[in-house]
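Put briefly, the fold is written as integer tokens. One such record reads:
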Amino acid sequence: MDNILFFVDKIIGQEKDRVKEKKREREPVDGVSGLSIGKEEEPARENLLRNRSCFFSLISIGSFSIPKFMSENNDAAKEIRKGEELDSSRLEEFLKDSLPRLEGKLTLRQFPGGHSNLTYLLTFSNREMVLRRPPLGSKVKGAHDMKREYTVLQALIPVFPYVPRPLIYTEDTSIIGCPFYVMERLRGKIIRQHLPEGVSLSPAQAGRLGRNIMKVLSRLHTLDYQKIGLEDFGKPRGYLERQVQGWIGRYRNARTPDVPDGEDVMAWLEANKPPDVDHPAIVHGDWKPDNIVLDEEDPTEIIGVLDWEMATIGDPFMDATYTMIYFNEKAEQDALGISATLPAVLRASISREELLEHYRHYSGLTVPNPDFYYILNMFRLAGLLQQIYYRYYQGVTKDQRFEMFKTTSHLLIGSAQKVMARTG
């Protein structure tokens, strides 16, 4: 058994170039001026109790058996998939002309995870790098914008040492047929449902890792985006309104007769949407454990954060509450019959409430209504998956993997409805 979230996160990216938006949301990140990272002390237990009631209502989504090919290790580079090959000789010539002191012949392999931007391992005798390019056949204007992704990494690297160092970007399509960029390779460990081979965590270490996940997120959210050159990166005003209305429209457009209509969830989101935050921040957009790279020697320390293609400027609480989805707790698993999304030691050592309190402690920000953000994140995920299922339902794709998303839509909408019932 493997939780559907981990498979879902690897394939939903392919729908980004199918989302028909007249105006794609592109938002730089407003750093939070005047806020500072909190001290290293453990947050007081009494602070946890203040916010306990709001997060007791959160319910994780379910899971079911996933075929073996869906749960294989996607962290190791492998042979390049047929049809996704690159012109090795032309690329080698370009890289050696552009970057100093590359030695030996270029060898290429591909990281197989994901169906959005394609990612390749570039190896010379004295250096390893990673190349990112759009998926084949991407036609939607603005989707899979390599320059945008490169720009946010360039802006962050001097002030946020958890991003891969970007090395070069080009729009010269004569090299591999599309724009692309190259960045340094980060070597480390990634935690999924189970601990990576060779990694063990004591309860104390697991608690420290959970705390560091929120500490690094807080560091991102308290950056001043204007000071690092991202003042034109996006539009924080109206961010939540665009999220709510955008995903309502996408879900309705992709709705099929065999999934919930979700109208009650849509109405609830419209009625309960909070005002714009007065401290917009750089939003990663996909802040989850398997986008976080851990130090090989000390797996409680974070050395990198991957997948910045959804980064924007907006409401930082979307990131903070999205992270909570992955920390489904033992009581939920027993009650709902779901499997774990993270290793047992990590789930047993830190609760969602503690994670949220760590976020408050380090960022100085308190999530005012976690239930709203949780429901919106669930509905957003339902919309992404329903767009994939719609293509399967219409016969546009025969990929049998996508049939499961009918069930996932029921789980996600049902989870949101349960939270709504508890909150009133």
Observations:
- DSSP finds 15 helices and nine strands in the chain.
- The mean pLDDT is 80.
- The longest strand covers residues 118-124.
